Amino acid sequence: TLNSTMTFVLGQTDESLYDMGFGGLLLRVCTTKMVALLNERGGIFDLEYTIDIEGSFCGTNSYHIEVRPKT
Question: Considering only CA atoms, which of 36, 62, 65 is closest in space to residue 51?
Answer without folding.
Answer: 62
